[in-house]
Write a structure and sequence with these properties.
With 250 residues, the chain is mainly α. Helices cover 48% and strands 5% of the residues. It has 10 helices and 4 strands; from the N terminus they run H-H-H-H-H-H-E-E-H-E-E-H-H-H. Helix 2 (30-49) packs across helix 5 (89-101). The termini are far apart.
Length: 250
């Protein structure tokens, strides 16, 4: 099969966000950021050689999968020897990346995600039996943690405690659905486009009365339009309503 070149590798959003996280949330210098990026590049090479990833560590889309792959690599004697010779620089790089994917420094601090808002290139859609746009489970988990496990529309809404997190169960919702990605030149799988909702509000946005859904979308537009613009997704109110509600152009 002929190898197809793509302009943008899946996971590059996380790679870019990680660099901004180190700078804007953790306050590290540019040289320190390069140091950790170089460490992850080496980790990615070892993972690729051992068929743990196709391209790099950034393509791993969930915290559980990331931990599993690191667990395998940390049992590899060649890699661990390299890590020891490098004075644990690679395990230190992984710890920094793990802090990022766990949302350390973000819990209950939505402003930390706002600091990372920036336009992102569009990731290549995954081809399975039908075309879908890839999404990052890490971004969703971070958004929920940053909201303090509270619904961003109605913080007073209460849910059950989730076994996975031992926190109130919440769901992440793409405000502009990823199915609309073809209409945009920048990725929709970005922090500005993901909101933490309780299950009731989430279902309402998908299945509620159109008039109430429109009111919700209008509220989100007013509170997030600057963040959307920062992420390369500047839209007028009418256009935002249309794409967020999945309406066809007339």
């Amino acid at each position: 099969m002929e190898e197809r070149k793509v302009p943008f590798a899946y996971g590059a959003e996380l790679q870019a966000y990680f660099a901004q996280y180190l700078t804007k949330v953790r306050g590290l210098s540019a040289s320190s950021v390069r140091h950790y990026q170089d460490a992850l590049n080496t980790i990615s090479r070892y993972m690729r050689e051992r068929h743990l990833v196709q391209r790099d560590i950034y393509e791993v889309g969930s915290i559980e999968q990331l931990h599993a792959r690191w667990g395998i690599l940390s049992q590899d004697e060649d890699f661990m020897q390299l890590n020891r010779r490098g004075h644990q620089m690679y395990s230190a790089g992984y710890r920094r990346y793990n802090e990022f994917v766990q949302g350390e420094g973000m819990l209950g601090q939505p402003e930390s995600l706002m600091a990372l808002d920036a336009p992102m290139a569009v990731a290549e859609p995954a081809h399975i039996e039908y075309q879908v746009w890839r999404r990052s489970g890490i971004l969703r988990a971070q958004t929920i943690a940053a909201a303090g496990y509270q619904c961003e529309l109605h913080p007073e809404h209460r849910t059950f405690i989730a076994e996975a997190t031992h926190e109130p169960y919440m769901e992440a919702h793409h405000i502009i659905p990823l199915g609309q990605q073809a209409e945009f030149g920048h990725s929709l799988d970005v922090y500005a486009n993901v909101i933490c909702l309780c299950p009731v509000c989430h279902r309402q946005l998908h299945h509620g009365l159109m008039a109430e859904r429109r009111d919700i979308v209008d509220h989100i537009y007013e509170t997030r339009r600057e963040r959307f613009a920062q992420s390369g997704l500047a839209l007028g109110k009418d256009e935002f309503e249309r794409v967020a509600l999945g309406e066809r152009e007339s």
